[in-house]
Design a protein that fits this description.
This protein is globular. Helix 3 (about 135-145) links the parallel strand 3 (about 115-120) and strand 4 (about 150-155). By secondary structure, the chain is of the alpha/beta class. The chain has helices at about 20-55, 60-75, 135-145, 165-180, 190-200, 225-235, 240-250, 255-265, 265-280, 285-295, 305-315, 320-325, 355-365, 385, 390-405; strands spanning about 85-90, 95-100, 115-120, 150-155, 185-190, 205-215, 250-255, 305, 325-330, 330, 340-345, 370-375. It has a single domain, classed as 3-Layer(aba) Sandwich (Rossmann fold). Helix 3 packs parallel to helix 15. The strands form three sheets. Strands 1-2-4-3-5-6-11-12 form an eight-stranded mixed β-sheet, sandwiched between helices. It has a two-stranded antiparallel sheet with strand order 7-8. Pfam families: DUF3141. InterPro entries: AB_hydrolase_fold, DUF3141, PHA/PHB_synthase. This is Esterase. It comes from Pseudonocardia asaccharolytica DSM 44247 = NBRC 16224.
């Protein structure tokens, strides 16, 4: 069955590597995407015509099916959490949610080292880590025995929170770790991963184990359209384009702009998802999967402008986290300070964070090599956090090892 998250790639030429030059890479990349988009439209058109001939329906039937398709594409609901939880710490830009079940608050489970999950923060809801009742990263974490479970939910930016900084984010992580026991297993997904890595570098004594999934640590490694675009733009204009976007957002980075960028990176995926909907408009299971994804993907939230501009300058552009030059509030965030067990998960076809960006952490930390786990999941970026295969095959072995290290 075709995934709604990671549609298969067509057999076409791949773009030249970024090492040949960011502009050459971007030109080749978008040329390849154009070919893929045209191929997807051609494939879907053939399927729809064949289906229409097979059904031999009336024009009214065809119109009704088209209306159902259009209605389904427009039907949106706010994403939500599926597992029971309660907010135990709240700030204007983040909630700490406690997913610990009552039966795990006493007895042997009470002694398990708590786990704190830092979700992605790229213009979407943090509920991606609890994507659906059947595709939940949090459920997999609980099933592995890490029952004292917490999540930092990133709230949408407002005019009141547009000046929130990296310091504020690191402070709310530290407050959360202190509140749940003073030391925690930290799991960081994508942007939550580099945030977790910076926190671990500044507070190594508070991190029991560190897990980074699809997290860019060396932002310039591998072949990434985001890295190539940032390098090309900043070489020509510095931060001016990014400041302009934040200005247009009233001091925040608009979530709709981030969404538009993601769609622009892989337009054939958007086309494929909508055309597959038309092909499967009468399949309830497909409709359910479609709505789960679209409700999360298309429901955007803004990012605090000051924080966004900081990360573009210091991480996307200057790549200071991996170089060791990153300084936060007068303190050097040196990954060499990290000595805890390290678990790294990358997607084999991840176009957002290619594996070299994630695995660069292994050479930057001081963790003994035998305590570093590198794992590559089959699939792309979002599949790492919500894909059935990654949740069933790649997360459980790592989480079981973290649990072994976390029991009294």
């Amino acid at each position: 069955m075709t995934s709604l998250v990671d549609p298969p790639l067509e057999t076409v030429a791949r773009p030249a590597p970024v090492s040949d030059g960011p502009l050459r890479f971007l030109l080749d990349y978008h040329t390849v995407n154009t070919v893929r988009s045209l191929a997807e439209v051609s494939r879907a058109a053939g399927t729809v015509w064949a289906d229409a001939l097979t059904r031999a329906g009336t024009p009214f039937d065809v119109a009704t099916r088209g209306l159902r398709w259009w209605t389904a594409m427009l039907d949106r609901q706010a994403p939500n959490w599926h597992l029971d939880n309660e907010i135990v710490l709240s700030t204007p830009f983040a909630h700490l949610r406690d997913f610990t079940r009552d039966e795990h608050r006493t007895g042997r489970d009470a002694g398990v080292v708590p786990t704190l999950v830092l979700p992605p923060q790229a213009g979407h809801s943090s509920t991606v880590v609890d994507f659906s009742p059947r595709q939940s990263q949090l459920s997999v974490i609980q099933a592995a025995g890490l029952t004292r479970l917490y999540v930092l939910e990133w709230r949408p930016a407002t005019r009141a929170t547009r000046d929130i900084t990296i310091t504020d984010y690191l402070e709310v992580i530290d407050r959360s770790v202190r509140q749940i026991g003073g030391r925690a297993n930290i799991i960081g997904d994508c942007q939550g991963g580099w945030l977790a890595a910076i926190y671990a570098a500044l507070h190594p004594d508070r991190v029991h184990t560190l897990t980074l999934a699809g997290a860019p640590i060396d932002f310039h490694a591998g072949d990434s359209v985001i890295a190539a675009s940032t390098i090309a733009l900043t070489r020509a204009f510095g931060l001016a384009p990014y400041r302009a976007l934040v200005g247009l957002g009233g001091g925040n980075m608009p979530g709709r702009a981030v969404l538009g960028n993601f769609i622009h990176i892989q337009p054939h995926s958007e086309l494929s998802r909508q055309l597959q909907l038309l092909e499967n408009i009468e399949d309830p299971a497909h409709l359910e999967r479609y709505h789960h994804f679209e409700d999360w993907f298309k429901y955007t939230q803004d990012i605090p402008g000051a924080f966004y501009l900081w990360l573009v300058e210091h991480l996307f552009w200057r790549n200071q986290l991996i170089s060791g030059a990153l300084v936060v509030d007068g303190r050097r965030a040196d990954l060499a300070a990290v000595t805890c067990p390290l678990f790294l998960l990358a997607g084999s076809t991840d176009h957002i964070t290619p594996p070299p960006q994630v695995f660069a952490a292994a050479d930057a930390v001081s963790t003994p090599r035998e305590q570093i786990t590198l794992r590559t999941a089959q699939g792309g970026h979002l599949g790492l956090f919500m894909g059935r295969d990654a949740l069933a095959q790649d997360w459980p072995p790592m989480l079981e090892e973290i649990h072994r290290l976390s029991i009294p």
